[in-house]
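Re: the request from the purification team.
They wanted to know what the chain is likely to look like in 3D before they choose a buffer screen. I agreed to run a prediction and write the result into the notebook, where they can find it.
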Amino acid sequence: MKKRSKIILFSVAWLILIAYLVYGLMFSSKRAKGVVCKSIEVEVLDSADYQFVRSATVKRMLTSSKATPMGKPLTDINTKKLEDEISGMVAVRDVQVYKSLDGKLRVTVKQRRPLVRVFNATGQSYYIDDEGLIMPTSPNYTAHVMVVSGNVKEPFKAKPNVNVLAWNDSIVGGEKPTICRIYDFAKFVSEDDFWNAQIAQVYVNGTRNVELIPVVGPHVIQLGGFRNFRVKLKKLMVFYKEALPTEGWNKYKIINLKYSNQIVCTKR
């Protein structure tokens, strides 16, 4: 009997809870029908890191559109359609739009994260983001990322949202495409605090002739090709730690990492 009573009490509690939730939903839905959109609030979550997308721009897009949600009942606002519209901005990675019963439409935006800026052989400039997608530059903002220039030639037409990683398995002139190696190198550098602070610019003279321009030290680092760059940078780190503190950062004008078992330096 006690077990049966517990089951009955448990069932009644669940029925009461379900009834309460249904009533709450019906009440909220009924209340929402009488609420119109009075304002739009936009928050760019990573605005402290990048400024490709500004909250004022997103808000202006939504308020100046013919399909503006302003003044419309909340129940008539299609948040998915608004999200798709905002996602059309090339620098937007993710967007969430939701309604509140106080008549506010809230928008949160997350931007794409550029790893490197490329100036290719034809003079075209663009970013590659952390997902390997080409991202156009902005006339209003320049990201502080590593710059790669010189004889950079893509095996595709460089346009927004082209996936560089799709060419990873391609072979051009017996080599993995340079643009793919640039992405690999930029990703590695961006994830290492020291190299991210030290390597400011990369100049590509050719597939096997790449130069690094550091922030600290009046020297040029001859990397050779991008192949095995992790091993080469590891050698350079040892050289930085063990040789330069005693010999001085201004002693050399060229540090050559092309050779597998040694570092060749040219004095100033």
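For the purification team: The two ends are 96 Å apart (CA to CA).
Please add any questions underneath this entry.
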